[in-house]
Amino acid sequence: MTEVINPSTGDVLTTVPPLDLAGTDAAIARAQKAFPAWRDVAPGDRARLLRRFAAVVDEHIEELARLEVRNAGHTIGNARWEAGNVRDVLNYYAGAPERLAGRQIPVAGGLDVTFHEPLGVVGIIVPWNFPMPIAAWGFAPALAAGNTVVLKPAELTPLTAIRLGELALEAGLPEHVFQVLPGKGSVVGQRFVTHPAVRKVCFTGSTQVGKSIMAGCADQVKRVTLELGGKSAGIVFADADLEAAAAAAPGAVFDNAGQDCCARSRLLVEASVYDRFLALLEPAVRAFRVLDPASEMSQMGPLISSGQRETVQSYVDDADVAFRGSTVDGGGWWFPPTVLLASGTGDRHWREEIFGPVVSVLPFRDEAEAVRLANDTEYGLSGSIWTRDVGRALRMSRAVETGALSVNSNSSVRYWTPFGGMKQSGLGRELGPDALLSFTDVKNVFLAMGE
Ligand code: NAD
C-alpha cells in the first residue's frame, strides 16, 4: 500500500494500492481491446461523450478542489482553477472529433486523401505538482483523437486522477477507454515505455527521467511528448512599469510554492533600477499570504514532501538571502518565500531548478546582456519580459529561447494556446491547436479511378 500524506499537516490521508507489473499489463491489454470500438465511435458521438465528461467534472469542481487541497497542499483558489481547467480542456478538445479533417491532394488518375489516424493506446505519466491539469492536457486530446488512455498519476498525488477516472465512467465513457493506474514510476510508468501496445508516451516530470523515457521509447520508435524542467527568467527593463512588475513577481515564482515548471525563478533586473526594484519587491514578498491552503485567503501552501523541503533548503543554506516572507509553524512541509541575491551565473541556485518558493536576482547592463544571461541555461520553458518599449518587447520575444513567453505579464498557460519547452525543457507541444495532431499519425491513401 502507498500512503498518501497531507503535506499541510504530515498526516496520512489514506492508502492506495499500487499496481504491479501484471496488473499494468492487464490494464494495457484492456485498453488495447477497447481501442477499435472507441476509434469507430462516430465523431459527433465522441464529441458528445467528452462534453458530458466535462459537464460531470464541472458538477464536481468543489469536491475535486478540496481533494487536491488535502493531497497536494494547493490553495483552494488554485485547486478550483485546476479542476475548472480539466473541464475547459475537455470542452476544448470535444470540438476536435468532427474537425479532425485530412486533406485532398491533387494526383492524376484518382483521388488522394489523408487521414489523421489515432495511434492506439496512449500512456500518460503525470508529476505531483499539477496532478489535474497535466493529466487532462494528455488525456483530453488523446481521447478526442480516438485513442484509449492509460494514465499513471504521481505516487504522492494519485487521488484526483483516480476520481477523474470514476467521473469518466459516470459520464458514459465506455469501460477501459480511460484507465487510471496508480503505482511506481519504475513499474507502471516504465511499462508504458516497454509495452509494445502503448504507441505513445506523454511524460511530464524531471528532465532526468524524461531523458530515460525518450531513450527507452527509441527502442520501439514510440511517439513521445516530454514536458520537463524549467529555470525561467523574468527580465525587468528600466523603462518598465516597475510597480506592476514587482507586484506580479511573487506570484510568478511562489504560486504553488514554486513547484511550477514555469516559475520565473531567475529575476534579471536592469542595473540602473536594481535597487529600486528590490525595494518594491520586498513588501510584495512579505505580504504574500502563506496560510492553510484551505483558507480562501491563502496564496501559498506547503511543499509537497519533507524530501522536497530538504532539497529546497539545500539551495538556501549557503546563499545570500535578501529577504523572506512568512511561513506557517507546526506540522507539514512549510517553507517561506525567499529572495536570493545571485553573485553570478555560476551560483547553484541560479543554475538549477529548485522547485520551491525561491527566486534568485541578478542585475544586467543592457539588452544584449539580458538575452545572453536569460539563454545561459539548458532549459527553455517560459519567461517574462517587462518593458514599455514595443520594439524591445518584440526583439526580446524573438531572442529569448523558450516555448511560452509573456510580455508585461506572467501568464503562460491557456488551454487554447500551445504550451511546451525548447532545449531540454521538452519536446512537442500540449494544449491549443498543436497538441491534437501529435496523438495521430498521417495516413495517405490513393484511390485509382480506373479506365
Ligand atoms: P519525476 O520525473 O520524478 O516523476 C514524474 C512522473 O514520472 C511520476 O509519475 C513518476 O512516478 C514517474 N516516473 C519516475 N521514474 C520513472 C521511470 N523510470 N519510468 C517511467 N516513469 C517514471 O518528477 P516529479 O518530481 O514528480 O515532478 C517534478 C518535475 O516535473 C520538475 O522537474 C518539473 O519541472 C517537472 N514538470 C514539468 C512540467 C512541464 O510542463 N514542463 C510540468 C510539471 C512538472
Strand content: 15-25%
Number of self-contained structural domains: 2
- What topology, given as strand order, has the largest sheet? 12-13-14-11-10-15-16
Q: What is the helix tally? A: 15
List low-pLDDT spans.
Answer: none
Radius of gyration: 23 Å
- What's the total number of strands? 18
Using the coordinates shown, work out and report the CATH topology of the largest domain: Aldehyde Dehydrogenase, Chain A, domain 1
CATH class of the largest domain, please? Alpha Beta
| Main beta-sheet annotation | 7 strands, mixed
Subunit organisation of the chains? single chain
Structure, briefly:
The protein has 451 residues and is an alpha/beta fold.
Report on this structure.
With 451 residues, the chain is of the alpha/beta class. It has two domains: 2-228 and 424-448, 3-Layer(aba) Sandwich (Aldehyde Dehydrogenase, Chain A, domain 1), CATH 3.40.605; 233-414, Aldehyde Dehydrogenase, Chain A, domain 2. Helices cover 40% and strands 20% of the residues. It contains 15 helices and 18 strands. It has helices at residues 21-39, 43-59, 61-72, 76-94, 131-144, 159-170, 185-194, 207-218, 242-254, 274-286, 306-316, 348-351, 367-375, 390-399, 432-435; strands at residues 2-5, 12-16, 104-105, 110-118, 121-125, 148-152, 178-180, 198-204, 223-227, 233-236, 266-270, 320-324, 338-341, 358-364, 382-386, 404-407, 426-427, 440-448. The strands form four sheets. It has a seven-stranded mixed β-sheet, with helices on both faces. A six-stranded mixed β-sheet has the order 7-6-5-8-9-17, sandwiched between helices. It has a three-stranded antiparallel β-sheet with strand order 3-4-18, with no helix packed on it. Strand 6, helix 6 and strand 7 form a beta-alpha-beta unit. Helix 9 (242-254) packs across helix 10 (274-286). The longest helix has 19 residues, at 21-39. The chain is globular. The relative contact order is 0.14. The mean pLDDT is 98. The protein binds nicotinamide-adenine-dinucleotide. Residues 125-130, 134, 152, 154-155, 185-186, 189-190, 204-206, 209, 212-213, 227-230, 261, 353, 355, 381, 421, 425-426 line the site of nicotinamide-adenine-dinucleotide.
